[in-house]
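dude i think i finally got it to work??
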Amino acid sequence: LMSTFVSIAAHDLKNPLAALKGGVYVLERLAIPDPGPETLATMSQSIQLATRLIQNYLEFARLDGDEEIRLVTRRVDLQKLVDRELALLGARLSSEEFARFDFQTQIDPGLAVEADEGRLEQILANLVDNAVKYSPNGGRIQVRAERRPSGVALEVVDSGVGISPEEQADLFGRFTRLP
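look at this
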Protein backbone atom coordinates (compact mmCIF):
# COMPACT_ATOMS: atom_id res chain seq x y z
CA LEU A 1 0.00 0.00 0.00
CA MET A 2 2.73 2.47 0.91
CA SER A 3 4.74 1.74 -2.25
CA THR A 4 1.64 2.47 -4.36
CA PHE A 5 1.10 5.73 -2.50
CA VAL A 6 4.73 6.80 -2.92
CA SER A 7 4.59 5.93 -6.63
CA ILE A 8 1.48 8.06 -7.15
CA ALA A 9 2.94 10.93 -5.12
CA ALA A 10 6.19 10.92 -7.08
CA HIS A 11 4.33 10.82 -10.39
CA ASP A 12 2.04 13.72 -9.41
CA LEU A 13 4.92 15.91 -8.26
CA LYS A 14 6.94 15.48 -11.47
CA ASN A 15 4.93 17.95 -13.57
CA PRO A 16 5.03 21.03 -11.33
CA LEU A 17 8.66 20.40 -10.48
CA ALA A 18 9.55 20.06 -14.19
CA ALA A 19 7.89 23.42 -14.87
CA LEU A 20 9.88 25.00 -12.05
CA LYS A 21 13.08 23.43 -13.34
CA GLY A 22 12.40 24.84 -16.80
CA GLY A 23 11.75 28.30 -15.39
CA VAL A 24 14.94 28.25 -13.38
CA TYR A 25 16.85 27.11 -16.46
CA VAL A 26 15.51 30.06 -18.42
CA LEU A 27 16.48 32.46 -15.65
CA GLU A 28 19.97 31.05 -15.02
CA ARG A 29 21.28 29.75 -18.32
CA LEU A 30 19.87 32.23 -20.74
CA ALA A 31 20.75 35.20 -18.49
CA ILE A 32 17.48 36.92 -19.23
CA PRO A 33 17.38 40.09 -17.08
CA ASP A 34 13.57 40.20 -17.12
CA PRO A 35 12.08 36.69 -17.28
CA GLY A 36 8.68 38.07 -18.19
CA PRO A 37 5.35 37.62 -16.50
CA GLU A 38 4.55 34.33 -18.27
CA THR A 39 7.64 32.53 -16.93
CA LEU A 40 7.08 33.86 -13.41
CA ALA A 41 3.36 32.99 -13.53
CA THR A 42 4.13 29.42 -14.63
CA MET A 43 6.65 29.03 -11.83
CA SER A 44 4.22 30.46 -9.27
CA GLN A 45 1.42 28.17 -10.45
CA SER A 46 3.75 25.18 -10.30
CA ILE A 47 4.68 26.05 -6.72
CA GLN A 48 0.98 26.29 -5.84
CA LEU A 49 0.31 22.90 -7.39
CA ALA A 50 3.27 21.20 -5.70
CA THR A 51 2.24 22.73 -2.36
CA ARG A 52 -1.33 21.51 -2.80
CA LEU A 53 -0.15 18.00 -3.67
CA ILE A 54 2.09 17.85 -0.62
CA GLN A 55 -0.78 19.06 1.59
CA ASN A 56 -3.03 16.37 0.10
CA TYR A 57 -0.45 13.66 0.77
CA LEU A 58 0.04 14.81 4.36
CA GLU A 59 -3.70 14.79 4.84
CA PHE A 60 -3.92 11.29 3.43
CA ALA A 61 -1.36 10.18 6.00
CA ARG A 62 -3.51 11.68 8.76
CA LEU A 63 -6.60 9.93 7.37
CA ASP A 64 -4.73 6.65 7.21
CA GLY A 65 -4.12 7.14 10.92
CA ASP A 66 -7.89 7.45 11.45
CA GLU A 67 -7.88 11.22 11.97
CA GLU A 68 -10.92 13.15 10.75
CA ILE A 69 -10.88 15.63 7.90
CA ARG A 70 -11.75 19.11 9.04
CA LEU A 71 -13.67 21.06 6.42
CA VAL A 72 -13.44 24.83 6.38
CA THR A 73 -16.33 26.20 4.38
CA ARG A 74 -16.71 29.64 2.93
CA ARG A 75 -18.29 31.29 -0.11
CA VAL A 76 -16.49 30.13 -3.27
CA ASP A 77 -16.95 31.91 -6.60
CA LEU A 78 -17.10 29.07 -9.14
CA GLN A 79 -15.92 31.12 -12.14
CA LYS A 80 -12.78 32.18 -10.28
CA LEU A 81 -12.19 28.62 -9.09
CA VAL A 82 -12.50 27.21 -12.62
CA ASP A 83 -10.31 29.94 -14.12
CA ARG A 84 -7.63 29.25 -11.51
CA GLU A 85 -7.74 25.49 -12.12
CA LEU A 86 -7.43 25.92 -15.88
CA ALA A 87 -4.45 28.26 -15.34
CA LEU A 88 -2.82 25.63 -13.11
CA LEU A 89 -3.51 23.01 -15.78
CA GLY A 90 -1.81 25.26 -18.33
CA ALA A 91 1.22 25.38 -16.04
CA ARG A 92 1.31 21.58 -15.77
CA LEU A 93 1.07 20.96 -19.51
CA SER A 94 3.31 22.25 -22.24
CA SER A 95 1.74 25.00 -24.34
CA GLU A 96 1.49 22.52 -27.24
CA GLU A 97 -0.35 19.96 -25.09
CA PHE A 98 -2.72 22.59 -23.70
CA ALA A 99 -3.45 23.99 -27.18
CA ARG A 100 -4.53 20.56 -28.48
CA PHE A 101 -7.74 20.78 -26.44
CA ASP A 102 -10.77 23.00 -26.85
CA PHE A 103 -11.47 24.18 -23.29
CA GLN A 104 -14.88 25.75 -22.73
CA THR A 105 -16.53 27.03 -19.59
CA GLN A 106 -20.24 27.61 -19.05
CA ILE A 107 -20.85 28.96 -15.59
CA ASP A 108 -23.92 30.86 -14.48
CA PRO A 109 -22.83 34.46 -13.78
CA GLY A 110 -22.13 35.16 -10.11
CA LEU A 111 -22.59 31.52 -9.14
CA ALA A 112 -21.05 30.73 -5.75
CA VAL A 113 -21.33 27.88 -3.25
CA GLU A 114 -20.58 27.36 0.42
CA ALA A 115 -17.79 24.80 0.33
CA ASP A 116 -14.32 23.88 1.46
CA GLU A 117 -12.40 25.59 -1.32
CA GLY A 118 -9.38 23.31 -1.08
CA ARG A 119 -11.52 20.18 -1.40
CA LEU A 120 -13.47 21.64 -4.28
CA GLU A 121 -10.21 22.58 -6.03
CA GLN A 122 -8.93 19.05 -5.52
CA ILE A 123 -12.07 17.49 -6.99
CA LEU A 124 -12.12 19.84 -9.97
CA ALA A 125 -8.40 19.34 -10.63
CA ASN A 126 -8.83 15.55 -10.63
CA LEU A 127 -11.80 15.71 -13.00
CA VAL A 128 -10.08 18.09 -15.43
CA ASP A 129 -6.81 16.11 -15.31
CA ASN A 130 -8.73 12.93 -16.13
CA ALA A 131 -10.57 14.67 -18.97
CA VAL A 132 -7.22 15.67 -20.48
CA LYS A 133 -5.70 12.25 -19.91
CA TYR A 134 -8.57 10.30 -21.48
CA SER A 135 -9.73 12.66 -24.25
CA PRO A 136 -8.36 12.34 -27.74
CA ASN A 137 -6.06 15.07 -29.02
CA GLY A 138 -8.12 18.03 -30.08
CA GLY A 139 -10.98 16.95 -27.87
CA ARG A 140 -13.39 19.37 -26.26
CA ILE A 141 -13.39 19.70 -22.49
CA GLN A 142 -16.22 21.65 -20.92
CA VAL A 143 -16.48 22.79 -17.34
CA ARG A 144 -20.06 23.71 -16.54
CA ALA A 145 -21.74 24.98 -13.41
CA GLU A 146 -25.38 25.86 -13.02
CA ARG A 147 -28.01 26.41 -10.40
CA ARG A 148 -30.54 23.58 -10.15
CA PRO A 149 -33.57 23.10 -7.91
CA SER A 150 -31.60 20.67 -5.73
CA GLY A 151 -28.49 22.90 -5.48
CA VAL A 152 -25.55 23.62 -7.75
CA ALA A 153 -24.19 21.21 -10.36
CA LEU A 154 -20.51 21.37 -11.33
CA GLU A 155 -19.67 19.12 -14.29
CA VAL A 156 -16.64 18.31 -16.39
CA VAL A 157 -17.64 16.91 -19.76
CA ASP A 158 -15.11 15.59 -22.25
CA SER A 159 -14.97 13.78 -25.56
CA GLY A 160 -13.23 10.71 -24.18
CA VAL A 161 -14.50 7.13 -24.39
CA GLY A 162 -15.92 7.09 -20.87
CA ILE A 163 -15.67 4.47 -18.15
CA SER A 164 -17.02 0.98 -18.72
CA PRO A 165 -19.59 -0.38 -16.26
CA GLU A 166 -17.03 -2.92 -15.05
CA GLU A 167 -14.49 -0.20 -14.27
CA GLN A 168 -17.11 2.02 -12.60
CA ALA A 169 -17.42 -0.53 -9.81
CA ASP A 170 -13.72 -0.01 -8.95
CA LEU A 171 -13.69 3.75 -9.47
CA PHE A 172 -13.63 4.79 -5.81
CA GLY A 173 -11.25 2.15 -4.51
CA ARG A 174 -8.19 3.30 -2.63
CA PHE A 175 -5.33 4.17 -5.03
CA THR A 176 -7.38 2.99 -8.00
CA ARG A 177 -6.10 4.10 -11.39
CA LEU A 178 -8.01 3.00 -14.43
CA PRO A 179 -6.18 2.27 -17.70
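The mean pLDDT is 80.
im so relieved honestly
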